[in-house]
Every structure is written in C-alpha cells, then in structure tokens.
Design a protein that fits this description.
It is built from three helices and three strands, in the order H-H-E-E-E-H. With about 120 residues, the chain is of the alpha+beta class. Strands 1-2-3 form a three-stranded antiparallel sheet. About 20% of the residues are buried. Pfam families: YhjD.
C-alpha cells in the first residue's frame, strides 16, 4: 500500500533530477566553446546521463502511482509551479527555486562522493 503523500516525495525527486540533468547538459554545452572540453566533457556526460536516468526512474514510478505531470514552469525567479493529476485528483505544487537548486547540488555532491569512494 502506498503512503498517502508518498507521491509528493516521488514528484519532488522527479523534479530535482530533471532540473539537475538539464543544468548539467547546459553547462556541458557551454563547455563546447572552451578549449578544456576534451578534459571535462566525458565527466559532464556521465553525470548528466546518471541524473537523466534517475529522473526517468522517478517519473516512471510517479506514473505507476497514478500520477501525471501536466505543467512545470518557473512563475518568476523564486517559485517553480508544477500541476499534476494523481489518481484523478488535480494538485498544484509550488517549490522555492533556491531550495530546488540547493537540493540539486546535494544530489550531485552525493553522487560525486559515492563515485570517489567506489574508485578507491
């Protein structure tokens, strides 16, 4: 049995990993203009693929819970609005953009730390 608000946690992770893989892909693209792309591009690609895979895993899990994301947008530079339907019920979720960015950084730091530990 799914906990009543478990869908909120899954949606939150879906949003975070979606933002993270897009941000990393954007940064990697800007690196194409730089002479250092030979050194850093593979790392960006690996991390971006990891974040995209996590995003799709959470999005699929959200769908299996009866959820569907309709709208994701920044209303201003402070708020991020998400409109979803969960088991036939429409929901509006509002997030603080600064908090989402900070949480993305935590996910990225954890990934890099774990990768470093596995390399030892």
């Amino acid at each position: 049995m799914i906990q009543p608000d478990k869908w909120r946690e899954i949606l939150h992770e879906t949003i975070l990993y979606g933002m993270l893989f897009k941000a990393i892909a954007f940064d990697a693209e800007s690196l194409n203009q730089d002479q250092l792309k030979m050194s850093y591009r593979p790392m960006f690609d690996t991390v971006s693929m990891w974040a995209e895979r996590k995003h799709h895993e959470y999005r699929s899990q959200f769908g299996r819970m009866g959820g569907k994301i309709h709208v994701q947008k920044t209303t201003d530079s402070f708020l991020y609005l998400v409109l979803v339907t969960v088991k036939g019920r429409q929901e509006e979720c509002i997030y603080n953009v600064s908090h989402l960015k900070a949480e993305c950084q935590v996910r990225l730091n954890n990934y890099l730390y774990d990768a470093k530990q596995q390399a030892k």
